[in-house]
Write a structure and sequence with these properties.
The protein is mostly helical and 186 residues long. It has one domain. 83% of the residues lie in helices and 0% in strands. It is built from five helices and no strands. Helix 1 packs antiparallel against helix 2 and helix 4 crosses helix 5. The chain is elongated. It starts with a helix and ends with a helix.
Length: 186
């Protein structure tokens, strides 16, 4: 029986690479979900327009962390360009809606509740889709420098739809966390 050392080494290297990529995907998925929760929580803050700025900052930080995870270069400027290019489809045609939903928070009493209805889901879904788009691009060997939002549009839109479900779950979790201290205090 002859053992081919080259074949054995290649098989082990391939298996190690597959395991590394699998672990990297799980870490990236969990990181993205953490930032979805942060986006949902930020959009719940009852301060008009703070929510939009906070969500963009959260998405930018997520891209930075994904860049570190995939060992890719990062810059704030390129990260912002990617966010606005990708989210342009959602925030572009829906920009008036998002600004209006955020602005309703200025209406005393009921305004905050109106903004709470859908803004957290939009913010969370957008964060999920941005994160998944960046992770997918990095997994294919890309960087922020060669990111093409036009080519990623269909993938982003699909992930945005999936992200709505993730964001609704995150919104429920955030609401439950907010209600828990109130129950404990009583």
């Amino acid at each position: 029986m002859t053992v081919n050392i080259e074949e054995t080494a290649t098989e082990h290297a391939t298996e190690a690479l597959v395991q590394h990529e699998f672990a990297q995907n799980i870490i990236a998925e969990n990181l993205i979900k953490d930032y979805v929760i942060a986006s949902v929580a930020a959009s719940i803050v009852p301060v008009a327009f703070f929510d939009i700025a906070a969500v963009v900052a959260i998405q930018l930080r997520m891209i930075q962390k994904l860049s570190e995870q995939y060992d890719k270069p990062f810059s704030d400027n390129l990260g912002r360009k990617v966010i606005f290019a990708l989210a342009g489809g959602v925030f572009g045609y829906g920009a008036g809606y998002i600004v209006a939903a955020s602005a309703t928070k200025m209406i005393p009493g009921i305004g905050w509740m109106i903004g709470m209805v859908s803004l957290p889901v939009v913010a969370g879904a957008s964060t999920y889709a941005v994160g998944k788009s960046i992770a997918n691009h990095y997994e294919e060997g890309g960087t922020l420098l060669d990111f093409n939002a036009t080519k990623m549009r269909r993938f982003y839109d699909e992930q945005y739809e999936k992200g709505k479900t993730v964001a609704r779950r995150a919104k429920s979790a955030v609401k439950a966390d907010e209600e828990e201290p109130a129950k404990t205090a009583s």
